[in-house]
Amino acid sequence: MARAGLTADRLAAAAAELADEVGFEHVSLSALARHFGVRDASLYSHVRNLQDLRTRVALLAGGEMIDRIAAAVAGRAGKDALTAFADAYRAYALQHPGRYAATQIRVDPALVAGSPAMRRTAEITYGMLRAYGLDEPDLTDAVRLLRSTFHGYCALESTGAFGAPREVAKSWERAVDALHVALSHWPRDEHDRRSPQVPS
Questions:
Q1: Cα–Cα distance between 195 and 112 in angstroms, integer?
Q2: Which is it for the CA torsion 56, 62, 68, 74, positive or negative?
Q3: 172 has pLDDT over 90
Q4: Which of 20, 104, 180, 185: CA 20 to 30 A from 138?
Q5: Alpha-carbon gap, residue 176 to 13, rounded angstroms
């Protein structure tokens, strides 16, 4: 492939493909240079270093993932939206393991703030949770609950760690059902629980 055709976006896309093939942790500038048939030094005109490349892959993958989630949840609310969100998340994680791994790295908060995809992720996630009547700080707590549940499940499933004969997909459905119950009956803070009820 001609060196003149290299751009930061093309490098990120190729690195994302490579991540799905060999694992995100094995993506390197040398491997990418070999893919394009150029010297390692040629890449530095487009990306600063390996961390820069990995960040670009993370943002690319995050954008792809939220596009899928947004399409899945469009026009839905409550449990239907939660289920669609969860299923789209899991499908992306299992279909694109390298890209998905990239979405889990820590990215400079300034880059996150400037990324349309990351802002859209927050808007869709928080919008879905507000339908359960949640406000801050419960919104942030609920986002962390969803993320840790989804990520933990997908990470274990991808490595074949679930050994019981129960179908993994069935357990996923039940986990999402349980999250819906938890969100619908979200525990209020101690001050709210102690506050006397005002007669109607």
A1: 38
A2: negative
A3: yes
A4: 104
A5: 32
What's the longest Cα–Cα distance across the chain? Answer: 75
DSSP-derived letter for residue 42 is G
Q: Does the pLDDT at position 30 exceed 80?
A: yes
Q: Which residues contact 20 (CB under 8 A, 6 or more apart)?
A: 96, 97, 98, 99
Copy the structure tokens of residue 88: 């789209």
SS (H, E, C) 46-68: CCCCHHHHHHHHHHHHHHHHHHH
Q: What is the pLDDT of residues 84-108, one digit of tens each?
A: 999 999 999 999 999 999 999 998 8
**b/e for 23-40, b at 16 or more Cβ within 10 A?**
ebeebbbeebbeebeeee
Structure-token pair, residue 166:
């129960």
How far apart CA 76 and CA 37 sit, in angstroms, is: 47
Interval 67-83: pLDDT, tens: 999 999 999 999 999 99
Environment class of 195 (CB within 10 Å of its CB; exposed 0-12, middle 13-18, buried 19+): exposed
Cα 69 to Cα 91: distance, rounded to the nearest angstrom: 10
Q: Which two tokens stand for residue 196?
A: 């006397």
